[in-house]
Every structure is written in C-alpha cells, then in structure tokens.
Amino acid sequence: MTDGRRKLVVGVVLVAALSAFVYAFSLGRGTTDEVATTGAVEQLVPPQGAQVLRQSEIGIDLAPEWTGVLQINGIEIPEDQLRRVPAQNQVFFTPGPGREIEELPPGRVDVTALIWRPVADETREDADTVRWTFQVA
C-alpha cells in the first residue's frame, strides 16, 4: 500500500471512530439538545441507565409551565392511566393489571416524553421530545 493510500485509510478510520464516539455520547444524554437548553426537565424517573423492577413507576418531572405525555417502548399511555401532579408539573405511569402495559418487559425499556408549554400557547403538535432508557431486571 502506498504512503498516500495508507494516510487516506487511517483518516477514514479516524473519522469513523470519531463519528461513532459522538453518536454513542448522544445516546446517553437522555434529552434532545433543544429541551436540555431550555431547562424543561428537572428529573427522569427512573434515571437514564437505571435498573428497575417490572412494576416500577415511570415519569418525568418538568419545570414550571411544562406538561407532557409518555410513550413506553412506542406505546402511548392513555391520559386516564397517567398520574399527574399539576402543582409540580409531573407526569407518571405505573404498570399494572388492566393497564396499557401490565408489566415492563425484561431488558432495555425506551421512554419518550412529548413535552410542551400550554402557557405559551403551545400544544402537543409543538412538543419537544425527551428520550431516555433504563433496564428492567
């Protein structure tokens, strides 16, 4: 292999490695860039990367003026199954009998929260997306 070709291959490998590192870092962040900079999220329940039991509560604690809905493994939780704490801008779901999700499946669980600010005349259509994952034992 010529010296020029070797430099090209090394350069391509370095760019690929850097891209993979950036991608892996972005997966572990837990929120989108836009949401992170607004300070909308005060706490994720359970936290990113936690290990929990099958009946664990899932939710999000938001800054004042924010609200949202939850999707777990791509399944949107119906409004009548969400536990809201309006005074603290919190939205929770606990799996159980007769619920959209009766128990969390073992392994990785993906949560998406769609969040928006009704006081700013935002609706669900204006929602930001917050994503995080955790493990079920």
Protein model, in words:
With 137 residues, this protein is α+β, with helices and mostly antiparallel strands. The chain folds into 2 domains: 1-30; 31-136, Immunoglobulin-like (Sandwich). The chain has 2 helices and 9 strands. The strands form 2 sheets. The chain has a 5-stranded mixed beta sheet with strand order 2-9-8-4-5, with no helix packed on it.
Topology pattern, helix = H, strand = E:
HHEEEEEEEEE
Mean pLDDT: 83
Number of domains: 2
What is the β-strand count?
9
Beta-strand content:
25-35%
Summary of the model, kept short:
This protein is an alpha+beta fold and 137 residues long. The protein has two helices and nine strands. The strands form two sheets. It has a five-stranded mixed β-sheet, with no helix packed on it. Strands 1-3-7-6 form a four-stranded antiparallel β-sheet.
Keywords:
137 residues; alpha+beta; Immunoglobulin-like; 2 domains; 34% strand
What's the SSE blueprint?
Blueprint: H1 3-27, H2 33-38, E1 41-45, E2 51-52, E3 58-62, E4 67-72, E5 75-76, E6 83-85, E7 90-93, E8 107-116, E9 128-136
Parallel strand pairs: 2-9
Antiparallel strand pairs: 1-3, 3-7, 4-5, 4-8, 6-7, 8-9
